[in-house]
Amino acid sequence: MPQLDFSTFSSQLIWLAITFSALYILIARVALPRIGGTIEQRSDKIANDLDRAQSMKDDVDKAIASYEAALADAKSKAHAIAQETREKLSAEIESERVRVDDEIAVKIADAEKAINAMKTKAMGEVNKIASDLAGEIVSDLTGTKATSASISKAVASAASKS
């Protein structure tokens, strides 16, 4: 193998040093600055992206806080409207109930008057019906017709006992 030949070993070391030095200079002067610039640009871009992301996060947090405040305000307004509506409906129901109660009371009073009038009329006619019936019974049983004065007197006497 030519690499292990000791007669060319010193020239191989010199060419190694020259190649290594040229490669080192090329990498140090050309490649590393480009790589460093790219890394720095990338680092700056990442930092800017993180700053923009933080700014957007802050904006989102503000928007969420604003949304929650608006939602809480809307809920409180809805609750107030519902309470007001409940109170209004309760008042309307109560006034309607009072009106209906008054109408029912008037109808009940009218019905009671009508019932009392019918009762008074019926009670007034009971004595007449009883007199007529007693007269018929006496005439059927005895075969003679009783006088209306004696029948009225007997019915009045029976009504006073009961």
Description:
Helix 1 (9-142) packs across helix 2. The protein has helices at residues 9-142, 148-161. The chain is rod-shaped. With 162 residues, it is mainly α. The longest helix is centred in the middle third of the chain and has 134 residues, at 9-142. The model has no long low-confidence stretch (mean pLDDT 89). The chain is 91% helix and 0% strand. The chain has one domain (9-161). It has two helices and no strands.
Summary of the model, kept short:
The chain has 162 residues and is mainly alpha-helical. It contains 2 helices and no strands. It has one domain.
Q: Which helices and strands occur, and which strands form pairs?
A:
Layout: H1 9-142, H2 148-161
Helix pairs in contact: 1-2
Any key phrases for this structure?
single chain, rod-shaped, mainly alpha, 162 residues, 2 helices
Total helical elements: 2
β-strand amount: under 5%
Domain count: the total is: 1
For the biggest sheet, the summary is: none
